[in-house]
Amino acid sequence: MVTHTCNPSTLGGRACRALMDEIEHDITKARQKKTKVGSFRINPDGTQERRKIPLAQSEAFLTDLLEKVCERMNDYKLEEDPVTKERTFKRFAPRKGDKIYQEFKKLYFYSDAYRPLKFACETIIEEYEDEIFSLIAQEAHYLADKLCSEKSDLCETSANHTEL
C-alpha cells in the first residue's frame, strides 16, 4: 500500500492538499456540464466548426478556476491530530450549494492566519499550472496525490507493506 503524507513542517504540502481539494470539488461539479468550443469562423458552406466538450476540460473554465481558487483558502483552518501531531488544513466552511451555506454566509470571519496558505496556494499554481492542466485533461484520479507527491514532491510518498 502506498501512502502520501505531507510533511507537517512545510506549508507547501498542506497548501497543495487544500488547493487540490478545491480543484477536485469544482472539477467534479463541472464534469456533468458541457460547453461549446471551436472556431467562430463561418465556413464557405455556412457552417461553423463547434463541438461540445465537458466544461471541466474547457481552457476558459480551468483558467478562471485557477485564478479564483486561492480566494477560498480562508475557508480552511489548521488542525493538529492529537495522536500523530500531524498538522493539516481542514475545510470548515460549507460550500456554495450546501444547505447551511445561506446562513453561514451571513457570518463574517476575518483572520490573517490564512494569508500564508493563500500565498502558498498562489505560488503552487504559478509553478505547477501546466501540470495541473495536464492532470485535469488526462482526467487523472487522485489529483492531490498526483500533483502534491509525484509532480511537485511537496508531499512525501512512502510504501507501507502490510503482512498477511
TrEMBL record:
Every DUF3456 domain range: 14-155
Q: What is this protein called?
A: CNPY1 isoform 3
| Coiled-coil residues | none
Offer a single GO CC term for the protein.
endoplasmic reticulum
Stored Pfam families: DUF3456
Could you say which protein family the record assigns here?
Answer: Belongs to the canopy family.
Q: Mind giving the lineage of the organism this protein is from?
A: Eukaryota, Metazoa, Chordata, Craniata, Vertebrata
Organism annotation: Pongo abelii (Sumatran orangutan)
